[in-house]
Write a structure and sequence with these properties.
The chain is an alpha/beta fold and 250 residues long. 46% of the residues lie in helices and 14% in strands. It has 9 helices and 7 strands; from the N terminus they run E-H-E-H-E-H-E-H-E-H-H-E-H-H-H-E. The chain has helices at 17-28, 41-53, 68-82, 105-129, 143-146, 152-172, 191-195, 200-209, 218-228, and strands at residues 8-11, 32-37, 58-62, 87-90, 135-139, 178-184, 240-243. A 7-stranded parallel sheet has the order 3-2-1-4-5-6-7, sandwiched between helices.
């Protein structure tokens, strides 16, 4: 018997990167996985196919989590199909990296709409329907501590998520539901291309900042999340776990 047999999980932003790795990890542990995506339907279908090929169960459901109607529909369809929700991994996010003075109002609003509002909408839904002794994990960033130039808007939107989780953990504790955060460090995903970190000089600098002297892999972040949603983590809540190769210490 696998650790997550009989559990149903929603993973937001699961078509690529860390979200994809989380979906594969949870499915390998026995969970039925809802692979949420916004725009990359082919990638989401490929994740479902990979899970099914390995003997697991998954379904892809499109929803822009920044839209309350679509988020409501995501949770409603999950319950209609599977009758329960035991795990939420709120991973979907949007990044913007630029000096604060250069960030437009439109960029600010879109980033907060996805990262802060979108996660809030998912947490609100999950708090209403998740099973007793369920698990919630939100993906943040070490940037809320590291504070690199250019990251003010992205880091601030993720800091809001961290506060949501700390308070929600208290509110759901009477039901045995745990709420935690995982904060990845520099991880080998498409975000490195968006932020310019793939450039040789930048890459050398951030690897030099990392005690383990390399980029993290999505599967390594997924493993940390997999532990927090598993049966051995029932005594862990309100925590922020860095998966960062040792850059920061909380």
């Amino acid at each position: 018997m696998k650790d997550l047999d009989g559990k149903v999980a929603i993973v937001t932003g699961a078509s690529r990167g860390i979200g994809r790795a989380v979906a594969l990890n949870l499915a390998a542990s026995g969970a039925t996985v809802v692979v949420n995506y916004r725009a990359h339907s082919d990638s989401a279908a490929a994740v479902v196919a990979a899970i099914e090929q390995a003997g697991g169960t998954a379904v892809a459901i499109a929803a822009d989590i920044s839209c309350s109607k679509q988020t409501d529909a995501l949770f409603a369809e999950t319950l209609d199909r599977f009758g329960q929700l035991d795990i939420l991994v709120a991973n979907a996010g949007r990044s913007v990296f630029a000096p604060l003075v250069e960030v437009t109002e439109q960029e600010f609003e879109r980033t907060f709409a996805v990262n802060a509002k979108g996660t809030f909408l998912c947490l609100r839904q999950a708090a209403s329907v998740i099973s007793d002794h369920g698990r919630i994990v939100c993906v943040s960033t070490i940037g809320t501590v590291l504070n690199l130039p250019g990251g003010a808007i992205y880091f601030a939107s993720k800091a809001a998520i961290e506060q949501f989780c700390r308070i929600l953990a208290l509110e759901l504790a009477p039901r045995g539901v745990t709420v935690n955060i995982v904060s990845p460090g520099f991880t080998d995903t498409e975000m490195l291309d968006v932020t310019g970190i793939r450039e040789p000089a930048a890459l050398e600098k951030i690897i030099g900042m990392t005690p383990l002297a390399r980029l993290g892999q999505p599967a390594e972040v997924a493993a940390a999340i997999g532990f927090l949603v598993g049966p051995q983590a029932g005594w862990i809540t309100r925590q922020n776990l860095p998966a960062d190769g040792g850059i920061i210490s909380r």
